[in-house]
Amino acid sequence: MNTAGTGPQTKKAHKSSVLKAGRRTWFDWVVFAVLLLLSVLMVLPSIHMLSTAFKTRAESLRFPPTLIPDTIVTENFTKLFELDFVTWYQNSLMIGILTVTGTVLSSAFVAYGFSRYRAKGKNILFAFLLATMMLPYPAVMIPQFILFKQLGWVDSFLPLIVPAFLGSAYFIFLLRQFYTSLSGELFEAAKVDGCSEIRQWWSIALPLSGPALATVAIFSFIWSWNDLLGQVLYLNSTEKFTLPIGMAGMVSSTTRPPSWNVVMAASLLAIVPILVLFSTAQRYFVQSIVLTGVK
For the whole prediction, is pTM greater than 0.85? Predict the structure, then answer.
C-alpha cells in the first residue's frame, strides 16, 4: 500500500488550501454588499405594503412614510367586505383556475403532437405558431374584441377562459422542448403493450412532465390573476368584476387622495393565492425541467 501521500506535508498542504478557500477577498465582500443592497431594495416595497395595510388613513398619507405603524389597526380589512371584494376575489379565482386547467391540458396536448409525430410541413406550422408570439396584444386586441362581440360573449367570462383551452404558443414551445428530451423507448414499449396514443400522452408524458407543467401552471395563473386590460375590455357588469378591476377602481375612486391603507390591505390579500401556489409547486418549479424518461 502506498502511504506516501498521507504524510504530515500532505496534511499541512490540505489545511492550508482549506484556509485559503475560506478566506474572503475584498471583491467578495463588495459583491456581497451589492447583492444585499439589491435584495433590500427588492423587498422594501413588500415591507411597505405590509406596514401600510395596518396603518390609519392619516398615517398612510404621511410623508416620509414610517416603516412601523404608530397604531396597528385591522379595520382596513373589514372595510374590504363593505365593498364587493369577496365577489372580485371569487371571480378572479374562478377565471384563474379554469385558465390554468385549459392552458396546461391544451398546451401539453399540442406540444406532445409536435414533439412525437412526424408530418409533412410540421416545422413550418410550428414556425407559424411561434410567429404569433411576436405579435403584441394591442395588435390582436381589436380583432379579438370584434370576434367575441359577434359571438355574444362580451360581458361574460368566456373571452377570458375559452382561449386558454386553445393552447398558448409560449407554453407549447416550452413543453415541446421538454417532450423531445423524453426517451422514445418508453412510448415504443407502451405501443407494443397496446397503449393508445391518447393513453401514452395521459399516462406517460404527463406524469413525467411535472416540473414543466408546474412552470406552465404558475405562469398562466399569474398572468390571469394580474390581467387588467383583457378583463376591462370584456367585463361590464359590476357583479362580474375581478380583483384587478376592483382594485383599479379603488385607486381611481372619487376619494382623493385614495385610501392607500385599504388598497394595501387588498393587495396583501391579493398575493395570498400566488404565495400558496408557489409554496405548493416549489418542489417542481425549482427542479430541473430537462428529465430523462429512463431512470
Answer: no
